[in-house]
Each structure stands twice: as C-alpha cells, then as structure tokens.
Queue: 2 jobs
Job 1
Amino acid sequence: MRPSPAGDRAWAAGVAVLGGSILVVAGLILLELGGESVLAWRRLGLLRFLVGTDWDPVQDKFGALPFVYGTLVTSAVAILAAVPVSVGLALFLSEMGPKQLRRPVAFAIEVLAAIPSVIFGLWGLFVMVPWLRSTVEPALQRTLGFLPLFRGPTIGLGYLAAGLILAIMILPTIASVTIEVLKTVPLPLKEGALALGATRWEAIRMTVLPYARPGIVGAALLGLGRALGETMAVTMVIGNSPDIHASLFAPGYSLPAVIANEFAEATGDLHVSALAALGLVLFGITVLLNAFAQLLLKTVSRGFQRRPG
Amino acid sequence: MKKLALCSLLLLASTARAAPILITGAGATFPFPLYSKWFSEYNKLYPDIRFNYQSIGSGGGIQQFTNGTVDFGATDAPMTPEELAKAPDVVHIPTVLGAVVVTYNAPFPALRLTPDLLASIYLGKITRWNDPALAKANPGVQFPDLPVTVVRRSDGSGTTYVFTDYLGKVSKEWKERVGTAKSVSWPVGLGGKGNEGVTGLIKQTPGAIGYVELAYANQNKLPLTVLQNRDGNFVAPSLESTSAAAAGVAIPADYRVSLTDPAGANAYPIASFTYLLVHKDAKDQAKGDAIVKFLWWAVHQGQALAGPLDYAPLPKAVVTMVEKTIQGLQVQGKPVPLASSR
C-alpha cells in the first residue's frame, strides 16, 4: 500500500479531536456546575456549606455534610462487602473451580451487571429491607451491639441497606475485572511455586495475589466509582433523611439521591444553586478518590517488580 | 411539466390547510392521567388539534411556561410572587381538585385524627400508637404497642406543599419550625420517592403512617384516615368532600388560594386546586384560539370525565367564575368567540 501522508494527518487530527473531546466535556460539566452554584457559594460560604448539617429549603439553610457522609458511608460498606466476595469468586472461577462451571457463572455475573438499578432498588425495598429489619439487624445488634455502628431501632432502611444494595450492584464490575486480571498471571510463576512444594492456597497467596494486587485495587476503585454515583437504588432504601448517625441502621441520605429528588421541583434560586453545589461536591469527591487511586496503584505496583498486563 | 408543478403546489397548499395544530404543554404529574384523557377525547372531537403534554413536575411546568418553550403550563401549587414577576401575563385556570389523604399500616380498621394529633405525629411528639391522645380520639379502638413510623415524600412535590400548608394552618409550632414548601426539613420520618415510594414504605413497615394523593390511595385501596375539619366534623376523604372544600373558601379572581382547612360541615380539610397556566393574550392565532376553546370544554364537558379517574370536579360556583376568566382571555388582543355557556 502506498503511504498517504495526507490521510495519516487527517487520521491523527480526527483522533486528537475525539480524544480531546473528553476533556472538553469534563471541562463544560465543571464550568456549568460552577456557574450554577456560584450563588450558593457566595450566599452560604464555602466552609459553612461543606460542614453545615442543616438542609432546610424553607428557610434557605443548606449544608452538605449529611449527604457527603451518607455517600461515603454507603460506598465504604459496599466496598467492604463486595471486594472479598468478588475476589473469592474470581479466584474460584480462574484457579479452583471446575472448568464446566466457569462459563455459566461468568454469564450470571454479566446478567447481574445488566439489571437496571431501579430493579435492584425495588428488590431491596420489598425483599432485602424486611429481611434486614426482622433478621439481620436484630442479630447484629445481639452480637455486635456494643459497637455504636449497630445500635438504635432496626427499621431496615438506612445506610446498611443502601451499602448492601450497592455491594450487589458493584460486585459484577469488580469480579469480572478481577477475573481478567487473574488471567494475566504468568503460568510459570504458579508452576514454580507448586514445584517448590507450595500447596494450592500457598501458591495463590504467594504468587497470584501479589501479582494481581494492582489490578484488584483498580477493579475495586471502578466499583467504588459506580457506588458513589448510584442514585435510584440508593434513594429507595436509604430512608432519605438528611441526618448524620453513627449507627448503620439509621436512615441517611446521599448526594446523588438528594439531587435527583429535589432538583425537578426546587423552588427558589438558592435551592437550585445549592443542589448544583452538591453536584460539584460529588464531582470533587470522585476526582479526589481517583487521584488517590492512582497513588495507591503506584504504591502497590512497586511492591511487585513486573508490571501486569 | 407545468401541470405537475401546479398539481404539487395545490397538494402542498391543501396539506398546509389541513395541518394539525400541535399544542405543547408541560408540568404537574398529579393531573396527568386526567389531562391525557381530556386531550385524547378532545382530539376525537376536533381531529386537527393535537396536544403534547410532558408531565415533568409543577416546577418544571412553571419554568418552561415562563421561558416560552411550551404553549401552556400546569401546576399544583399556585405560582409564587417571584415566579409571577417573571411571567406577568400568566392566568391560572383551576381544572379539578385533588386531596391529600393520610394512610397507615396498623392492625385496626379505622383511624380518626384531629388536626392537633396529625401535627403532633409529624412533629415527632406522638411516637407510639398506644399514646393516650390517640385513644381519646378513637373510642373503642384497640391500639397496639407499636412505634409510629412517619413516612413522607423525599422528592419535591405539590402533594408535600398542600400537606405542609395544612399543617402550618392548624399548628403554630409547625408553621414556625418547619413551614410550607415542596421540600421541607422534616422533624422525623423516612422519605419515599413519589406516591408509590411512600406507599411502598408504609406497606413494608408495621406501624407506619404517611400521606399520598386521594386518587392514588383510591386506586390502590389504601386505608384512609378520617380527619376532623374546621367545623369539628370528622370527614372521610372522598370526591364530594374534596369538592366541598372549594365551596367553603372565598376564591380570589386569580384563583391563587389555599383550600386547606376550609369552612363547611362536609369539607375535607386537605384539598387543593390544580391549575393550567395560559397567557392572558396569546400571540399565536391558531394555537391561542384552540387553547381557549379547549379550556371552555374542559370546565364543562371535561368535568364529567374527572370523577371516574378519582379527581374531584369543580363546584358550580367555581365553574361560573372560571367561565368569566376564560371569556376574558384574548388572542392577539381580541377575545375568542365561544359557544354559549351551558
């Protein structure tokens, strides 16, 4: 084929435009949110808005803390519940389980990922919440009730319910990425460990997991990204009360949920502006966590010489 | 060739004449089922007039109407003075009435509440069903030893506006501590999204109490609380008692009035109008004409369609008032000729 510098240049320019467009979109979002929220920052004050705990549209008092707290707590519960299960699932499928089982289980994970979030929310409200209220929460209270995390009335709706729904929703993401990561572990590494007399578990612990660790952390952060932004399923089971409670049984609220709930019928410019400011806060949290993730990835990759993939 | 051109020109002209008038509107979700019925029935009578209504919520309806992106708006709560300032030529046309009812999940067949009791429950002062104050208002009812779980809307909504408007009228403490709005800072309770979310939470939680629209409660056969009205009578929510609420209030010429806590022996105390928003003087001849004629139809023939869909029709006195308002609407500075009043 004859080289065509003109075509090459056009191609390069086209790709550059497509690549640059993501920066433009992110910039526009930031600009729009910033513009919309100027009024809130000016009238309420940056610090007072961020650490304020009142949310009262009637008296024009707006504080973001209950929503930030709810978002972080539910996402933390989700990660803590989903990562061990996902990694175990991935190890079983790629290392231990019978080959015939891998395809159906992998298919089931993909199906789980395709369920719309409103379905998760409905299932959570009608199946999981009653179960939490009547069985799980009383049991936790009996055994771990000395911790402030598991105190108070058990109504089912709250941080715990939202966190567990999120855990189920981010499980497919984390599990399927982890499976792909485990596939990249070189066979000679495992064979070497086994040849040295390691048991299967020891081989996994000493070669597979360290090699895959950066990838697993990356998978968890992908899941976290979804958990932070999930709206529909969370609002259906979190209780929608802008309060801060130490107990996981108590009702709370999250950033995306309050924006979705109140934006359509927000009256008053300050209310709309405060909701846009919440959007900016959510944006900020996501950016911070991503930066933290990059840092974490660098640290864990250094622990193992060879880069995966 | 010339003939062909002439033919196609004629064809174009004829299609232009028969082109349907498409009228767009946006706003409240509460009257949406009734409005879609009205629009489809009206379209059967006048096939060249088509309506496109987006039920995006009252706030969105007001905003789109003010920005001029739709031909008419719809809202449950009347526009505020600030909103009016941005749309000075708006006219509120009440179409039907809705009511907010209190429903519950507890093992007794009927519940009677006084305004005080309802406010106390929503202020978080009555926390258990076996509170002596509840027993006093309900002689003969065996109340269980259950916590009262208060449920309310989490999304901004006209239903919340009407409910908090009522509580603000009957309780001074509510007015000072919480106030009236589409979203408020609730002293207690769990938030559900939409009527269905509130109903879901109530059905899920033994001992729960919450508020939903009458139409929704009727269609889902929810237990209804009987409320004491201003005249001291205990009134069950129904279409008749809702319509009676509008008869007990002096209605101003712009219809921007709260119907909660009205006078009247049989008036249900938590009722409200729902409105269409139109221009006092429409700019587009064809569309303006069609809207005014449709409004005329809606407050006459349209009212008969309200009951079967669980909306309370306007009382006679209000219809007479609205007739005058519609006759006062103009298109390009001229009134629209209307069929004689029935």
Note: Residues 10-17 of chain B have pLDDT under 50 and may be disordered.
Job 2
Amino acid sequence: MSPFLFWLFAILMLVFGGAVILNRNPIASALSLVICFMGLSALFMSLDAFFIGIIQVLVYAGAVMVLFLFIIMLLDLRVEQLRKINLFTMSGGAAVAFAFFLQVYFVIRQLGASSRPFPALTAAKADDVHNIGALLFSNYTLPFQVIGVLVLVATIGVVVLSKRELR
Amino acid sequence: MITLGHYLTVSAMLFTIGFAGVLLRRNIIIIFMSLELMLNAANLSLVAFSRFQVGPDGGPNYNAQVFVFFIVTVAAAEVAVGLAIIVALYRARQTTHVEDINTLKF
C-alpha cells in the first residue's frame, strides 16, 4: 500500500469522475467513467481485495460500459446543445453537494479509527476468491439464490421492455 | 502513511461527485452514470472497512467483500433495466433531457 500509488490512483479516479459529470458529450463521459473505474479497481487491489478489483474491471469496465456505449450510439445522441442554465438551481445543487461532503468529512474526522493505519495481514494474501466463495455458499446461500432470481427477472424484464411500445 | 480516513475521504469525494452529477446534469444517461459512481463510492468504503478489520485467521473481513459482490451484481441488473427504460422513453418521446419529461410534474 505505497502512498505514491494510492495518491496516483485516487487522483486519477477523482479527476476522471469529475470529467464524467463535466463533459458535454455523453461518449466522452462514458469513456471517462471507464478510466474512473480502472482507478477504483487499482484502489481495491491496494486494499488486498484482488477479486473485487477484477470483478470491477470485468463487470463495470467490461459489461456495463459497453452497454452504456451501445445505448448512446443507438439513441444517436450528439453533443447536447447548450440550454439556458438556471444559475440559481445550479448553485443550489452545488451547495447541497458540497454541504453533504463537508458533513461526511467531519464525521470521518471524528471517527477514532480513521487516523489509524491498516493492520498487517498475516494470512496468505491472494486467497480471497476461495474465502469469498466459501462464504457465498455457506452463510450467504439464500441471498446468492435471490440474486440469481433477480438477474433472471432483470433479463426477462429487459426483453419485455424493449419489445413492446410504451403507451 | 495511508490510513483508513484517507480511503473514506476519497470515497466521500467520489460519492459527492456522483451526487452533484445527479443534481446538476439534465441528460438522463449522465444521471445514470452518476448513480453508478455513487454505488462504487459505497463499495470503496466497504472494502476499506473490510481490510481494516483483520479477522482471527489473519485475513480481511470477507463479509464486506461478499456484500460488494452483491452490490455489483444488483448494479449490473439495474443498469440493464434502466437503459431499457431509457430506450423505451426515447422511442416514445425522442428526448433524453429530463426537463422535457414533465407530464407528472405538478
């Protein structure tokens, strides 16, 4: 967990996360989101969560972003034309978001554990797929099956939604 | 020295970026991407807490990582359904701008 790599990937993630909401072109936003997720997956790996990092790249940067790009191209969205910006609501929204961040930041500052460094791991490091799998099929069997049903329902729902015209 | 607080602060910043995106942007696809940012910020703090609490076997607390696995799965299903709804909406209204979709607005 070298500090240099942490700052590198954290700043990469935050800069491209900001680019997602600042870009006017939806395709540029989607590609920024891919780089943001790559940085996030590097942060996961710096926390020794290798399986979660790989899942992040495969599911988000792979599947979800391809879906986003396909939909953007299917809808043929161009760079959105500049509409009249309501400055009052814009500054109000920014103020609410900033106030939210300050609130969370002061809660984190108050948390006693937040100034302590991470304890060292004594177990084998790259054993997390085995451990997560064992938990998934022992303690979390019912949620796992419910998730399976949920994915099935989502698949059928998408087919139904894209087949019929909405009236 | 990188502490738990650093990771939590970065996660809070990412959540704030997503939150600001939902509040400020008017393009429904960008709003959807901002939702993904917020979900991932929550995942980052979950994994940080998981690494912080070393269990009796000397590894991180894997319960939080199972939770992250579930969140990622639900988010993927949500993206598929949400984008299908956006496509249906676009077919009916020819717009992705949320201010043009105001039939239910009082």
Note: The first helix of chain A runs from residue 3 to 22.
